[in-house]
Structure formats: C-alpha cells, structure tokens
Amino acid sequence: MTDAASGAAERSVQVKLVLLGEAAVGKSSVVLRFVSDEFQANKEPTIGAAFLTQKCRLEDRVLRYEIWDTAGQERFHSLAPMYYRNAQAAVVVYDVTKATSLEKAKTWVKELQRQANPNIVIALVGNKVDLVQPSQPSSDSVAVDAEDEADDATATPGENAGSTSGEAESLRQVPREEAEAYAQEAGLLFFETSAKTGEGIVEVFTEIAKKIPIDQILASTRGNAGRGGAAGGRAGAGQEGGVNLQENTNKARDACSC
Amino acid sequence: MDVDAVVFGTGLSESVTAAALSKAGFSIAHIDANTYYGGDDTSLTLDELVQWADQRASAPRDNQSTYISAQRKKYTSISRSSELVPQSRQYSLSLAPTIIPSIGPLIDSLVASGVSRYGGFKLMERLGMFDRPGVVRSVPSSKEDVFKSKELSLVDKRRLMRFLVFAAGEFESATELKGKENVPFFNFLRDVFSLDERTARSVAYGLAFCVSAQDPTLSALQRLRRYSKSVGRYGPSAFLVGHYGGIGEVAQGFCRTSAVSGGTYVLGRRLLSVSSLKSEDNSPSGRKYVIELEDFPDQLACDLIISSPDYISTELFAHASAVMTSTPSLLGTPSEPYPVARCIAIIDRPIRFCAEASATRAAANADAPSGEQVLPEKIATGEVDTAFLVFSPSSVPSGSTTAAVHMLVTGEGSMSAPSGKWIVYISRPLLGDDEYSSSAEELMRPYLDATLSLTTSASDVAGASPAQPLFTLFYIQQLPPSPASTDATSTTLVTPPATSLISELADAATEQAEKIFWRAAELLNASRKSEDAKKVEVESFWPPLDVIEDEPNLEEW
Ligand SMILES: Nc1nc2c(ncn2[C@@H]2O[C@H](COP(=O)(O)OP(=O)(O)OP(=O)(O)O)[C@@H](O)[C@H]2O)c(=O)[nH]1
Ligand SMILES: [Mg+2]
C-alpha cells in the first residue's frame, strides 16, 4: 500500500552521529574517508554543516549512520546543540599536531555530557597521525592547504614541514598516552586516525556501532507500533513505528566495508 | 556582517522561510533570542520546559527585552507542579502539539527540501472521541468503518455513507453546498444530509476537527477531504506525529538545511536595536537595515527583515506588514486563530482507547471475579502510545459547552518520552465567553481528569484509581498582535500565527512560509538595483534536490 511500509529501511537502525571539534582538525576528511574512501588534500572549511549517510554492517544488523559534520569555525556556536541534541553518537576530533585542539575537544566532551542525550556514545579521535609517523612521508599537496585555510582556522604546523622521521616525531603535540588517559577517565572511546591514509577510520565507526544500544533503539521505534488496539487490530508486520516520508528511499545503499 | 535578509525567530514558519531563501541562493542570518531552536513551536526537555515556564511566569523586570515582554503577554496564567521528575533529558515536550496530515504543504516541503531525511515521524495509532470516563468511541471514517459499525442504524449508515461520498468529491460545485458555504457545518450535516445529532457530532468534531458548532461548512469539508485522502499514504492513519516532540524538531531540520546552504545561525542573543536607514547613502553597505545584537561582534546589515511578532518593537510594527494566509489556499479557508488554554502532563501509565463494545463487555465483567478479566485476544487493553482524542462540546462535566478540546498523547514510540512514560497535551480553544476569568488550570482540570480516567481500562478491577500525573503545566497561549498593514512593499515582514488548529498548524505555517518566501524573493531582487548585484533567479519554492544528494553517500559537501 505505501512505499514506506515496505521500505528497505526496515531492518536498518538509524544512528544519528555528530562530529565536533576545532576548525581544520579533519572532521570532514574523516567522514569523507569513511563514506567515500577518499581524501582531499585541500578540503575547504565546512560552512554551517554537512549531512551524509553511510550504512555500516555489524554482524546481522545494518546501521545507517546519519552523519552531521559541523563547522569548526562556526562563529556563534549556535548550530552544534541542534545536531547533538538527539544524537546517539558523537565523534570529537582533535589534531595530534595541535595541542589546543585537544583542549577544544575537552570542552566539547563536557558540553555533550552536560547537554546531550545521556546515553550518547562519544569517541575521541586524534586525527592526522600520518604527520607524526616517520614512515609516512607527507605529500606536497598537504602543504597546499595551509594557505587555503580560512581566518581563525590555524594552519597545522606540520603541513609545511618536510618529513624526515625526526621532524615528524617532533610535530606531535599531543602524546597518545595523555589523550588516551583522558578518554578513559571521561568514559570515551579513543582512537588515533589519519583521514589521509585511512588508518583507524573504519574502526571509529565500527566500535561506535558496537556500543550503540541497537536493541533499545529498535524497541523504541518499533515497540508500540503494533498496538493497534480495539478497532484497528494489530498493525501489519511491515509497519514500524517510524514512517519514512520519501517515497524513493529504497535504493540499495552500499554497506561500508566494516 | 552583511546579508540579504535577517530572520528573527526559529518557529516553523520562519525556519521554512529561512531554508527556502538559503537554498534559493539568498544570504540570510537567522536569529533567535532563545538558546534553543523552534521558538513557540519548540520541543524542550523537562528541565528546559520548567525554565521556560518560570521565566514567563516571573515578575517583569526593568529593561526586559522586547522578546521577553512579548512572551510574557502571550503566555499567561502559568502554573506547574513542583515535584522533580527524573530523566528530564529523555523528554521532548512540545509547546505546539501538532498532528500532521500525510498530504499537505508540510509533507511536500519536507520531501522537496530533503529535510525529511533528517527527522523521523510516527504514524498516529488511534483517533477517537471521548465518550464518558474510561470509554473512547472510534469515529467511523471509511466505508468499511460505517459498514461494520454496530452503533449506527441501517438508515443512518446509508445517510453517513452518502455524506462521505459527497465529502470525498468535488463538492465545491455541488448543488448541496450552493449558498451554504458559510452556514455552520453542524447544521449543514443535519439539514442537508439528515445526519442524526450523534453522527453529526462524530463527523464535525471527530473527522473535520471543528472546534465549535459554528465552524463554517466549506472549510470543514475541505479539511475532511484532505484528511481522508491522507489515509493510506503512510499507513492506516491520516496523521503523522514528529519524533522528538514534533514540529520543533521539524523546524530545526529546516534550520539545518538552511545552515548547510550557508545560512548563519545566531542563538541566545538579545536584539538590541533595528535601525532602518532612510537613505541608502547613510549605509556603508547600501543595505536598508542595521541590526545590533547583544554580545555580538559586528552589526548585521540587511535589506529585509522577516520576523515572528515577538521581536518587533512598537516602532517597527508601525511599518511592518503581515503576510497572512487569509486568501483561500491549498488548505482551503483557514480557520481564524484563537487563544488556547493548554495542559501538558506526564503520566506513567498508558492511556487506553477502550471502545464501547469492549467497555460494555468489561462493565459486565466488572462484577465477575477477577480471574475472568482477560478479554478475548487482549484487544481490549487498547493501550496507545501516540493517539489523538477529541472532546466534543459538553462531553465533560464543567468543561466547555461550546468548544471542542483536543488531546494528544505521545510516548516512547515517538521518541518523546522514556519507556513507560507518556506525555499528554490538551488544547482547549478559548472562543470568547466567560472563559477568560478562569485560570488555565481551572479551564483544563476537567479535561485532564477525563483523560486520566482512560488510564483505568474498563477491564481493570472496578474501582482502580486513575493514574496521577508526575508533572503538570497549565497555561494560556494568547494571540500575538498582528500588524494592520499588508502593504506589499514593506520590507519588514511579520509572521502572525495563521491558525491554532492542531491538525492545521504545520501546514498553515508552511503555506505562510511559502508566501513570505515569494514576497521576500521579489523584494530582495527589486533591491538589487545596481548592475554588479545579480538577481537571484527563483523558479520554485524548493529547488530540485541535487542529484548528488540522492546518491548513496555524499549528500552535501
Ligand atoms: N596530513 C593530514 N591532513 C589532514 C588529515 N585530515 C585532514 N587533513 C587536512 O586538514 C585540513 C582540514 O581538514 P577538514 O576535514 O576540512 O577539517 P574540518 O575539521 O572539517 O574543518 P572545518 O570544517 O573548518 O571545521 C584539510 O586540508 C585536510 O586535507 C589527515 O589525517 N592527515
Ligand atoms: Mg569540515
């Protein structure tokens, strides 16, 4: 009868995920790597926000991540609360070559813990590890984006540097142990990643997927739909609590490799 | 900062307008005095709602902002329970409880703008009319319902069927309606279709959601037709309820889309001043208005202001223009807005919609030993998660004798409450009379009690007491002032509410937004006189969604 009732979204669980973090730490790049397995050396600062979706298979379940990538340089801090309000997961990103970005990340974590859904799964992600890995020479193209970066988005120091191993090591401003200890203390998942090489990216999303209380989400969206009550009787098996307004959402979407 | 338009208020209408303008390519700044999105349409956590109420109920302070003064005039007679309720953040309580017909401008806009991807909706499970304590009558709305009905005599069935066929068709040109467009719908049903009193009440209040016996025929018929067409689009009910508290979340979705298209958002800042620059030479940017916000680095310059009435100072009101949906539209003739007395309550036992038949059966059972109370198929539990109930006039002792009252309950299924809790919203239209001397609580208490009576199902042990609410808030929502002018050249456009009817709110706001959008586009293009300022070509309310947005993954970059 309706497209929605027979929708392919039936068994997939929607998970709203928001990315937060200082400007230019690589939020958009992390998402781009996860969603399209690409990297752009001179990614432009996000204006406002961007919305993406990606499916992620976890054992017998399919998660559909609805990803809100926010703008680090958003001046008035007005948008972020809207994105994390009903989010089930948050990825707070910092740049391992920039100590202040971890401080910013900590304020985001605090705000999330104070304001967001109390069950939100938070992952702390230290990005750009390729820049501090001796074996990973950074390409010239990375250097370009330093110029491109806008106003308050400070350039990553490492990006102009050459890449002998000693120099690379010295670029690191946030020791892994320090960030990891903080994450543990604050009850966060912790990862180091490189959107550039892809290192650690998929893990972020799979580990989050494992911690999401999927059954709970399913129960709350589906649970009461069947109570047709006296007159209507039970609703059809295909009908879930949620209604998908778009008629054309049944397209197959690639599941991510995870 | 220099933008084409500044939009004040993030209610549904303003948010849809902002999204459409941004998507069309105009630059906007969207401001809200609150730290949350949605304005009068917002959904709040329980703590936020308590704060919201207390701020509006407290004694006025000197130096109050225009916005807060306006809000204090709009929300009156506020009283709330004082016990703390745990899990505050798991509630999304709506200031504008709404049910959304599956066919209409809002749903069209949600799909056309892509905003539907950001939010979820739940299909209304049940719709009924309050009969008497513990008993809810279902409303026969389809041929099958009428056919199956045990309440109707054969003659009544035939009459009702005839009416339903009429109401589903192109009645505008039908002889039955000629000259009767504005007679009370109730009379029309009786006189033209010979419906008996009870059936006429079901149709007028339970299907067309008339709020009084005086509601005119044409608009009632138009609503009824639209609602019955909505049945089956997404499921057996005509109506949807938004997840996370309804249209507040929908409004946020439109703000997100606006932000994705480059709209700038500033929340929680007080509006200090709006100066209109008579001569454009005075303005360094060539813009018409300069706006100052508290704690805001720079001034905002713009050519057009779009605002909810609450932000508009007296001076600005004088040359502001209302964009009303008073002309007949897709929705038909809108019903005039009216003040509404409201009750929001949280309960921890489900409401049951027990039909007459099972209630009678259960009443017979009530005397029987408790072992026999499990009714066949358990259908009679009638528990609802998300449902809508109509109290027709005079259906509740010491309730209204003239107005129909609406009750919406939402639970975990609409993501608005934790498991095992439900939010009850009751809206009572204030249509004049002597109601104004009573407090919101006095006006609403009878309806709250009647609603709570539905938490004891007829199959419960006789004498089981109804649920006690964990939280209650009562208040009256008055109508904001509306500018007298509808001058089409004014560059301050105000958005007074187009209707107060729970099933029309969302669509009326969307229609209003579309009108404002077109007016704004015209005015903004007209102000781009100089050669270097290119006009924005606007072809439709929503530009086609980028193909890329429909691609599996990459939606916006
Ligand atoms: N070397 C290296 N560069 C990266 C990595 N991730 C991102 N970048 C670069 O860092 C710059 C900023 O990346 P974005 O993804 O735009 O950062 P963002 O956090 O989305 O920035 P805003 O949208 O302004 O908040 C871009 O030039 C990227 O190419 C990484 O893992 N390694
Ligand atoms: Mg970005």
Give an overview of the whole structure.
The complex is a heterodimer of chains A (258) and B (557). Chain A has 258 residues and is an alpha/beta fold. Chain A has one domain: Rossmann fold, CATH 3.40.50.300. Helix content of chain A is 32%, strand content 19%. Chain A is built from 9 helices and 7 strands; from the N terminus they run βαββαβαβαααβαααβ. In chain A, strands 2-3-1-4-5-6 form a 6-stranded mixed sheet, with helices on both faces. In chain A, β2 (49-58) and β3 form a beta hairpin. The longest helix of chain A is centred in the middle third of the chain and has 17 residues, at 99-115. Mean pLDDT of chain A is 76; it is low at 1-10, 136-164, 223-240 and 248-258. Chain B has 557 residues and is α/β, with parallel strands linked by helices. Chain B has an 8-stranded mixed sheet with strand order 4-23-17-22-21-20-8-9, sandwiched between helices. A 6-stranded parallel sheet of chain B has the order 11-2-1-15-24-16. In chain B, strands 6-10-7 form a 3-stranded antiparallel sheet. In chain B, α1 runs parallel beside α10, α1 (12-24) crosses α14 (505-527) and α4 packs across α14 (505-527). Chain B is globular, with a radius of gyration of 24 Å. Residues 359-379 and 548-557 of chain B have low confidence and may be disordered. At the A-B interface, α1, β2, α2, α8 and α9 of A face α4, β7, α10, β11 and β19 of B. The complex binds guanosine-5'-triphosphate and magnesium ion. Residues 21, 23-29, 40-43, 45-46, 71-73, 127-128, 130-131, 138, 142, 145, 153, 194-196 of chain A line the site of guanosine-5'-triphosphate. Chain B: It comes from Obba rivulosa. Chain B: Belongs to the Rab GDI family. Chain B: This is FAD/NAD(P)-binding domain-containing protein.
